[in-house]
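Record now logged underneath.
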Amino acid sequence: MRRFFLAVLAFALVGWFATGIAKVRSDERAVVRRFGKVVARPGPGLWIGWPSGIDRIDRVKVQTVRQLEVGPTADTSDDPNATGQYLTGDQNLIHLRIVLEYAVDDRDGTFEQFVVHEDRLEAILTREVESLAGEWAAGIDIDRALLGGRSLLPAWMLPRLKDRLVALNLGVLVQRIALDTVAPPAEVRPAFEAVNQAQIAAGTKENEARLDAARRLREAETVKFQLARRAEAETSAKLSAAQAEADVFVSRLVRYRALAATNPDVLETIWWNETGKLLAALKARGRIDVLDAYLAGNGLDITQFFSPKKR
């Protein structure tokens, strides 16, 4: 009987000492506390220390992103006493369900704080998120909250929550904040949804009008460009023609001055040459005729101007 008792005692002692052996995985960090005081921070591998009751080893996965949901669930969103209801700046109630993603800060000095606060960590995070959510809701009207809350709240809350957690020294790092649900109370939800649909429809019409205006502006710019190019081409052509006529005139003026220096009657000669050219052109067009051929003994016979009618 004594031997059996000693065997049981020896087995119990072996089992108790075995509680001081632990394996730390590659994705874990560990802290060993002896009578509450941190005495070691073993890395991945096998750890052998004092048995349970003397040493306490806490192993924590540090490569896992943890998620905390703050606010009412789908079953409690219509309950006026449920958490996640906030008063907006224009005195309306709004339901907010916020998703917080965080990770363990595995740096020495902060990791131990996570181990110390781990049991009540989510309660502290929930309290801080709810406090900031109430502050955010109080500074915004319900229309802006419903329409832009999914982008406005995370951008506003993330830096403020980080600052608070640094002050609290909880040993966690905030990765992301998302607004999962933003909705008015159930009693007025249909009215808000109708307003949202009307605003969306108005926004759609406004975008269509902007696109049509942009299209018409592009068409007008195209026509303007074409007209400007055409005007430039016509202007260039007229300038070239005018320049050519001016060059011809200057050339003839130079020749006239050269001839006038030696022949005083050159201007009369030029006059009759130009008059002859004009008369010939008028005659070719049927606008004028020489009358000498129609002179008779008794004078000008105008009947010869009209050709006899054909029968």
Observations:
- The longest helix spans residues 189-260.
